[in-house]
Design a protein that fits this description.
mainly alpha, globular
Length: 121
């Protein structure tokens, strides 16, 4: 036995095989073809952000554009959009208000706290 308890120090294969049985349960560290971490929200966040900027002063058109965007409202997306809006609290609020009207969606505690932070900036 080697010092590390995994066999002799010259048997590197044994040391590497001990990790082969482990399974990664999340995918947040997977990379894209460009070497960037995979982010399931990034394209939807940018699409929504562009819509918010384009139609921010015309609420009926904004709501129609969001509805027709093809973006599926899901857990985590609202937080990401609000963070993307940063200091533009009005944009964040417009999305916050629209998404609250979507069937099957309701804001959680974290989203309300984040919206308060956005307004406070």
């Amino acid at each position: 036995m080697g010092i590390d308890g995994w066999g002799s120090s010259d048997n590197e294969t044994s040391k590497d095989n001990r990790w082969s049985r482990l399974t990664r349960l999340d995918n947040k560290f997977e990379s894209t073809s460009h070497g960037q971490p995979y982010d399931e929200f990034s394209s939807d966040v940018e699409k929504i952000y562009r819509i918010l900027w384009k139609f921010h002063s015309r609420v009926p058109k904004l709501e129609l554009a969001l509805q027709e965007s093809g973006v599926t409202v899901r857990s985590g997306l609202t937080e990401r959009v609000l963070n993307r809006c940063g200091d533009a609290g009005n944009l964040g609020y417009r999305f916050f208000a629209w998404v609250s009207k979507q069937p099957g969606y309701s804001h959680n505690h974290d989203v309300y706290n984040l919206m308060i932070k956005v307004w406070g900036k």
